[in-house]
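Hi U.,

Before I forget, here's the chain from the pilot set. I'm dumping it here mostly so it's searchable later in email.
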Amino acid sequence: MARRRLGKYLPLFFVMLPIAVLLIIGLYPLIFSFWMSLHWWPLVQYKEPYYLGAENYVHLLTASYFPQVLMTTFLYVCGSVGIAFFVGLGLALLSQSESRIIGLLRAYLLLPILLAPIAVALIFKFLYNSLYGPVVLIYRGISGITINFLSKNYALPSLIIADAWQWTPFMFLVLLSALLYIPKEQNEAAAVDGVNSWQKLRYITLPWLKNIIIILILLRGTVCFGEVDKIWVITMGGPGRGTETLAFTTYVQGFYHSHMLGESAAIGFIILIIVNILYLVFTKVFKD
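Structure:
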């Protein structure tokens, strides 16, 4: 009887155990962060948290720098994800051949994604150096003009290029995998009907990739919203607040202004709300 009862409840135990672990790991930090966002918490001074209610959110949303930081965040995410996607799609379309040379190119194209974000940031910081950076020297040799790629007008595009360079291989790899599974019958039928390359891309390839594209953009966009490493190493949010994103502000407020832990948590929840709204809008628009 005991064995029968054990056999009856054992599957339920193995189902509930990972759910409980996920709730503890994911739900508790979320609840604690929300609680922290409602308090003033001078952690370094070893004082008790002081309840503020929604004051952290009000202070953040009415801060003079918030619109600029929000706009920078959207530009950074849209630029990085957009460039990585379109370049990755183009490379995937060009790499469908099974030749040996294409196989080698595929392998080399995957190298950037194997690097740590900090390593990528250090590489591009060297490339953009205004005195001896290769990019600066090459541009000067071609145009005769010296440009500081980390100045006010160029810092954000330079960051976008650095991030897109690392994550283009991810887009390329996933899109290429999906392209290789397009049924050959569709391509053969299109060839018989005299469909040109553009029509094939529009009516066969892109519809086949639609769900993969939605998942890729949402996944990469969500991760990009939390990008801090490259921004910190390459520009430290500058010049001024020119490259400061919401995630970077969260890091600075939490670790460099420790009396603003509550405000840092509030920024995190604002990011969470924005990402969820964009997710709902994006899936609604592209799935209809």
